[in-house]
Amino acid sequence: MDFNKAKTFIEVVNSGTVTKAASRLFRTQQAISLQLKALEEELELTLFDRQGPRIVLTRQGEQLYEEFKAAFLQMESSVYRMKSDKTSATGTIRLGLWMEQSTGYLPYIVSAFKKKFPKVKFEVLLGIDIDLEKALLNNEIDFGFYVFVHDKKLIETQPVLRRKLILVASNEYLLNRKHIKTIEDTLSLDLVDYSQDYASYAAWIKENARSLLPEARKKVPFVTVMNDLVLKELVRQGHGMALLPEEIVKGELATGSIIQLLPKKSKTITLTIDLGYKKRRTHSYLHEEFLNFVISKNNLWM
To answer: Within a 13 Å sphere around the CA of 211, how many CA atoms are in the beta-carbon half?
Structure first.
């Protein structure tokens, strides 16, 4: 068998379209398409459902992709290990994560990893859990950073980042309200929160005053949004209280423009971020090194 066709097949699936694969392989789209057709004829298999520019694999195509990918990754890993020179290792690591992680956690991880592997490149996809989980299962990313993973049968996870959430409101907003002395008093304040399954106020109430949980669950947020930075701005402009990661409001807490509510009378809650990757998939040498590197650094963030 012509292994060049197999490698082209893998790159097309990884890229998602023939156009992107042709660009990465420095070949024409026609040449790539001809190779794919020749591969199907050689194997006497239908590997693709032709549905526009996007690559849609048949069941046989998916099975062959996993087999080819594992074999090539094993060969690549063997070569890298024999060379054992991390400074010369090249490749691309595709990551999916939330916007908030991209502004704090990601720069540190990228910078630290590139000190070991200076020639590595990163591609970053921003989104929320459901989008990132779909991207991982569709081979659009190699690793995702998740709050919740739904398909735990197909995705393996490792905790790598923990964020302490504190209940805050702006000083201006609190000036127009009665002094908040108890956890029950917070029920009277306007709320801005994450949406749906990520709502944090009820979780905070459950941790601090479980008897108030039925009332807390009835509380309808003034605004729901899946972004810490937007929530912070809503709080800063006096639209209500919110539970936010302590690290993103340190500056405002220091100046007094934002105030933590009941710091001595309540417990904080913690949000854990997991690194996710597909089960039953052989990682390349570079991907294996990245996985081990991120896990080894979780002591700095947990």
So the answer is: 2
